[in-house]
């Protein structure tokens, strides 16, 4: 199973197009969107090519391949434009190896505030806009960074899962971090 992770699109058409092109090229089975899909939020500037209805239309073409969770900037009004569910605060993905991925945006659950997890589980979240792939205690913390508003000097990035390895990559192809599960 191959998974492609994107977080914090914030309504940017150009970022969404870049994500979808990288997703197509990756050969991944599913596009996992970790929230903050359409709205830029009151603390962020209006992103380049901000057009939430167009972002929704682009993503809706992939509706059967998307697994999504709600971010702190997402609302029920956003859900009205999207043809895939994205209002859950979290979702689980069970990997063929039996390991579990806990998908969330990061504003409710994160490395510092975890739900009850088992040893070896992976918390996958966005929200901080900073890429991470590391063990933290008995769990792995994985954050694909941000497409639209990368922070701390990082480039726009996405996550990938293949062959029991989680990695964060830039759109230029550079690997920022990775971890073998």
UniProtKB/TrEMBL annotation:
Top-level taxon of the source organism: Bacteria
Keywords, comma-separated and alphabetical: Hydrolase, Metal-binding
EC number(s) stated in the UniProt entry for this protein: 3.1.4.-
Pfam families listed in its UniProt record: Metallophos_2
GO molecular function, one term: metal ion binding
Cofactor: a divalent metal cation
Residue ranges of domain Calcineurin-like phosphoesterase in the record: 1-162
Family: Belongs to the metallophosphoesterase superfamily. YfcE family.
NCBIfam families in alphabetical order: PRK09453.1 (NF006988), yfcE (TIGR00040)
Protein name as annotated: Phosphoesterase
Gene: yfcE
